[in-house]
Amino acid sequence: MNNDLPQHAANKVRRALDDVHQLTDDPSEMMRISILAAGVCIGQAAGFMRGMIERDGKDAKTEVIVDEILKLVRTTAVKGADAAWRELTLPQGGS
Q1: Contact assessment for residue 72 and residue 84, using Cβ atoms and an 8 Å cutoff
Q2: CA–CA distance from 66 to each of 23, 27, 35, 79, 87 (Å)?
Q3: pLDDT of residue 89
Q4: Contact predicate 66/73, CB 8 Å
Q5: Which residues touch 46 (CB under 8 Å, ≥6 apart)?
Q6: Is 36 in contact with 28 (CB distance < 8 Å)?
Q7: Do 28 and 43 contact (CB within 8 A), yes or no?
Q8: What's the angle, vertex CA 36, arms to CA 81 and CA 59, rounded to 5?
Q9: Where are the alpha helices (DSSP H) in 1-95?
Q10: What is the DSSP letter of 56?
Q11: Average pLDDT, stretch 33-40?
Q12: What percent of the chain has pLDDT above 70?
């Protein structure tokens, strides 16, 4: 995997959100914009995770997949992207 590509995408998303946030001075509207944008990204990530799961010949409910994505988003926000990637690539039950 090209490690620069996810960072490049994150930078583009941040710049796009900054551009939209400049259109308002209302913090609650800025938060709503960010949450909506995050929901779009979480939905896309869940779709990609579903593809990974199906590629392994398994199935999972959408709610379970979204919960896993939300855990990874939390890890990214708290510990950084590398920690989330390690969490995602650990074997089931590993640490």
Answers
A1: yes
A2: 30, 27, 15, 19, 15
A3: 78
A4: no
A5: 62, 65, 66, 69
A6: no
A7: no
A8: 65
A9: 4-21, 27-55, 62-79, 81-89
A10: T
A11: 96
A12: 91
φ, ψ (nearest 5 deg) of residue 3 = -65, -25
Cβ–Cβ < 8 Å for 42, 30: no
Burial 48-77 (b: 16+ CB within 10 A, else e): ebbeeeeeeeeeeeeeebbebbeebeebbe
pTM (two decimals)? 0.79
Q: Tell me which amino acid residue 23 is.
A: L
Distance CA 43, CA 56 (A): 20
CB neighbours of residue 21 within 10 Å? 16
Structural Rg of the chain based on CA atoms: 15
3 state DSSP class of 60: coil
92 vs 36, higher pLDDT: 36
Q: How far apart are CA 22 and CA 20, in angstroms?
A: 5
- CA distance linking residue 36 with residue 92, whole number of Å: 31
Q: What token pair was written down for 35? A: 């949450």
